[in-house]
């Protein structure tokens, strides 16, 4: 089974759109896909699993959220003690699919509570990280910081997913990707801008 942790250099960079895009692509290859959101705040107004299900064509049971909170804030402000082990066990119990996509909330260092941070889900569930990078000014710095952090924790990077929706123009779109590929050789694994491409 392919096992991925979908994270990003920040919040609002296109992780959910990428999750739907990748799910649709994998389904088109004939693979069975399961999408899991470990924690969703701002719920139900924000329901990433419902978005992925609707736009990728996943069955209701193949896209779900584990923990929800109504206030749109970092999880640490909603849970004094986040049920980390229960969430990790629920993810590790997923079976019957070819690809498991686990979408984090915000970036790698978002606190779940006073002791745990988002990246620890990737470690506990043996997930390779796909880092969503918005193609805009500042993305080169932000991508390098996140990739270096993953390396410092011994966590594998599956690749960068560059979101061209944020590109100011064709010139900057292409040169940002070239520089990312120069500084982080072979890291640009996906390029997307919309649900269709």
Structure notes:
This protein is of the alpha/beta class. The protein has one domain: Rossmann fold (3-Layer(aba) Sandwich). Helix content is 34%, strand content 26%. The chain is built from 6 helices and 7 strands. The protein has helices at 15-28, 48-56, 84-92, 119-124, 139-152, 170-183, and strands at residues 2-8, 33-41, 63-69, 99-107, 128-134, 157-163, 188-192. Strands 3-2-4-1-5-6-7 form a 7-stranded parallel beta sheet, with helices on both faces. Helix 1 (15-28) packs parallel to helix 2 (48-56). It is globular, with a radius of gyration of 16 Å. The mean pLDDT is 97.
Task: Give the beta-strand count.
Answer: 7
Residue fraction in strands: 25-35%
Q: Under CATH, the topology is which?
A: Rossmann fold
**Can you tell me the residue ranges where pLDDT is under 50 for at least 5 consecutive residues?**
none
What would you call the shape?
globular
Largest sheet: 7 strands, parallel
Distance between the termini: 25 Å
What integer value in Å does the Rg equal?
16 Å
CATH superfamily: P-loop containing nucleotide triphosphate hydrolases
H-E string: EHEHEHEHEHEHE
Tally of helical segments = 6
Domain count: the total is 1
Overall mean pLDDT: 97
CATH class, anyone? Alpha Beta
Strand order of the largest sheet: 3-2-4-1-5-6-7
Helix content: 25-40%
CATH architecture call: 3-Layer(aba) Sandwich
Counting helices, strands and paired strands, the structural category is alpha/beta
């Amino acid at each position: 089974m392919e096992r991925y942790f979908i994270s990003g250099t920040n919040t609002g960079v296109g992780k959910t759109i990428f999750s739907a895009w990748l799910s649709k692509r994998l389904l088109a290859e004939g693979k069975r896909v399961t999408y899991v959101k470990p924690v969703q705040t701002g719920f139900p107004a924000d329901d990433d699993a419902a978005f992925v299900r609707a736009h990728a064509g996943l069955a209701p049971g193949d896209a779900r959220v584990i923990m929800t909170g109504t206030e749109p804030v970092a999880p640490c402000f909603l849970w004094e003690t986040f049920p980390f082990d229960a969430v990790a066990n629920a993810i590790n119990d997923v079976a019957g699919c070819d690809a498991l996509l686990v979408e984090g909330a915000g970036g790698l260092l978002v606190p779940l509570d006073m002791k745990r941070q988002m990246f620890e889900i990737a470690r506990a569930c043996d997930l390779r990280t796909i880092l969503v990078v918005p193609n805009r000014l500042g993305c080169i710095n932000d991508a390098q910081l996140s990739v270096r952090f993953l390396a410092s924790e011994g966590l594998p990077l599956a690749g960068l997913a560059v979101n061209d929706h944020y590109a100011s123009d064709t010139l900057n779109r292409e040169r940002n990707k070239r520089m990312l590929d120069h500084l982080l050789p072979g890291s640009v694994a996906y390029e997307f801008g919309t649900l269709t491409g």
